[in-house]
Amino acid sequence: MLEVGSGTGAFAARMTKEIGCEVIATDSSAAMVSASRSRGMAAILADVRELPFREESFDAVVAAWMLYHVSPLNQALDEIVRVLRPSGRLVAITNGRDHLSELWRAVETEHGEPAFSVENGAAILQAHFSCVEQHDVATCAIFESRATAAAYLRSLAQGHLVERLPQSGWPLLARGATTVFVAGGAM
């Protein structure tokens, strides 16, 4: 399995432990590659738009909450198709425009739709794969305090919105809009 945009390697490590598969983690951040390696993962500094692997190298590629950061997205998907075996699958997880809408309403701003989202992900993937399944997942986040919500906003580079957080009304329950796409059969 190849994980693109692996971050700290938590998911890759879990897959190695729970299902015993061989996982290679990639990320475009040297700090994230280092974090993955500290978990004992095989990790490589790589850009999903230019993967350093032979054609048909992997049975599965996982892209968890990262494709909406990639531009041009079609270049990344072409690379994923290239490194997948003919029977391989892409598992891509993303959020939609209504993700955590209660939090965005609390700071009086629109969240907007990610570039690769619940709403448009299937159509984007269908340009690269003959079979695309969409599995919507009901999630929620509980922001226990204003400080917790502020830390989350800062982690998204939205620190400028912290001052808009209300002083009262905590904890805040925010419903998620998340989808897991499973795609296979290269076009």
Please, could you describe this protein's structure?
The protein has about 190 residues and is α/β, with parallel strands linked by helices. It has a domain at about 45-100 and about 110-140 and about 175-185: 3-Layer(aba) Sandwich (Rossmann fold). The protein has helices at about 10-20, 30-40, 75-85, 100-105, 120-125, 145-155; strands spanning about 1-5, 25, 40-45, 60-65, 85-95, 130-135, 140-145, 170-175, 180-185. The strands form two sheets. A seven-stranded mixed sheet has the order 3-2-1-4-5-9-6. The protein is globular.
Q: What structural class do helix, strand and pairing data support? A: alpha/beta
* Counted beta strands: 9
Assign the CATH superfamily of the domain at 47-98 and 111-138 and 177-186: Vaccinia Virus protein VP39
Biggest sheet architecture: 7 strands, mixed
Cα-atom radius of gyration: 18 Å
CATH-derived topology of the domain at 47-98 and 111-138 and 177-186? Rossmann fold
Number of helices: 6
Shape: globular
How do the SSEs run, as a string of H and E?
EHEHEEHEHHEEHEE
CATH class wording of the domain at 47-98 and 111-138 and 177-186: Alpha Beta
Beta-strand content bin? 25-35%
Strand numbers in spatial order across the main sheet: 3-2-1-4-5-9-6
Q: What's the architecture of the domain at 47-98 and 111-138 and 177-186, going by CATH?
A: 3-Layer(aba) Sandwich
| Poorly predicted segments | none
Helix content: 25-40%
Mean pLDDT: 96
Please give the alpha-carbon distance between the first and last residues: 21 Å
Q: Concise description?
A:
The chain is α/β, with parallel strands linked by helices.
